Amino acid sequence: xxxxxxxRGSRAPRGGSEGPIGASTADAxxxxxxxxxxxxxxxxxxxxxxxxxxxxxxxxRAIEAAFPAAELMARGNEVAVSGPASEVATVERLFDELVxxxxxxxxxxxxxxxxxxxxxxARTTERPAEVLTLNILSNRGRTIRPKTLNQKRxxxxxxxxxxxxxxxxxxxxxxxxxxxxAVQALQAKQVNRIxxxxxxxxxxxxxGFLPGTLYEKIDPYLRPLYDALHDMMDPDSIPRLxxxxxxxxxxxxxxxxxxxxxxFIILDEAQNTTPEQMKMFLTRLGxxxxxxxxxxxxxxxxxxxxTSGLRQVxxxxxxxxxxxxxxxxxxxxxxxxxxxxxxxxxxxxxxxQAREPHRGPAPRGRR
Length: 367
Known about the structure:
By secondary structure, this protein is of the alpha/beta class. The chain is 41% helix and 16% strand.
């Protein structure tokens, strides 16, 4: 009579008799291992594998890097995905979102693929395809749209609220998207004019010592707003619209004493307003108008000891109907990748200084 084969995991522990301990340990280890599955994703012929996987499989490699526990194999019009069940399910959702983006006629980029992965990892209620295909404005073959989830929420807030605050670091698109929404509203005849304003804070230079007329003196402060307009409109039409008063770009001081009706009003660099200036600006709101206030509370140019109106206003207006506060982070930076890392590095430095306020700068080294 032959001995029956021993079950996997039931071998007796070394130095002792066979018992339930070894079996239960092996069973527990087996249960703790993630279940591996394999699925095949069929890509519609109308989409095209080259568009989906990128030139030289660039997008496919980015997906593989984002999901190291999964194995991907593309063949024909199918992508085979194997790995832990949760990872495979996320990869399937990702391909579904990317196919949806391509079906709208919009192409993919390495950046958009990475953004889609980030949104799926965050398990948000919004679909990545909804974010990546939300077109705000098209001009000269170029389409302006939000690129991150927080940017989409910011744009949606502008559609739903009368007064919107966009607060975040440089490069998060808070001013650019606001100007795009203003131009969109003007073109749709939802407003009669656009008013763009900034506080002309003297950042190291006094206006009186700058050469030229008053408009030439303040032009450097307003130049970023002009640049955004030139990206979104026919440059030849901007002087005509400014002469007619349809578009106004002016320092914040020019808003005092006015009531702004039927206008889309943007206050940029609002961290450089005093509390009194912020109150003055917000109370200029007239009938049929919308306001967007943008700024970065970590880059205040006010004289030392002065309180920023942008830093103070949330504690005053929080909870008011039709007022929305939206925060963007380094994850929403759409400039060079290094900008996001620079923002994070400064944030970490500021937190360290707050914890160690009396420590001086680090020594440069021995002489």
